[in-house]
Amino acid sequence: MTKTDARDNCVGVSYFSAHAADDAAQVLLGISKGNPAAWDEVLLGYSKVVSATVRSFRLQDSDSLDAIQTTWLRLAENVDQVQCPERLGGWLATTARRECLRILRQADMDTVLTRHLRTRCGVLGRS
Fold first, then answer.
1. What are all long-range contacts of 52-58, with beta carbons under 8 Å and residues at least 24 apart?
2. Which of 6, 48, 60, 70 is a good FRET partner for 97, with 20 to 30 A between their CA atoms?
3. How far apart are CA 124 and CA 12, in angstroms?
4. CA 80 to centroid of chain Cα atoms
């Protein structure tokens, strides 16, 4: 399946107007070329989506900021892999959600490790 074929299967609502697919594709192309104006447009259009998604997980402030920052980093890393540019909002929300879940899993693993060290190894003092 080519990228054009994949786009033919894409439908949905976008921040971008009537020419959503073309506008979004142009903005993503701009991001891939390092155009600051393209980043400004995406940040203006989608910051609230990313922030609201992350806020819904009720993480600590530092973890929320990490999740938001990592979401934008993932876009920079994968901008050429976005198959449906007009669905960028959904892509960003899904990426933010996955990052929040990763942070929660890591926090859970840290808690389990700390508990293990306290009870089995006596390494850490009681709190």
1. 53/92, 53/93, 53/96, 53/97, 53/100, 54/96, 54/99, 54/100, 57/97, 57/100, 57/104
2. 6
3. 52
4. 15
φ, ψ of residue 24 in degrees (nearest 5): -65, -40
3-state helix, strand and coil shares in percent for the chain, rounded to the nearest 5: 75, 0, 25
What does the pLDDT look like over 56-108, one tens digit per residue? 999 999 999 999 999 999 999 999 999 999 999 999 999 999 999 999 999 88
**Residue 31 scores a pLDDT above 70:** yes
**What integer pLDDT is reported at residue 13 of this predicted model?**
47
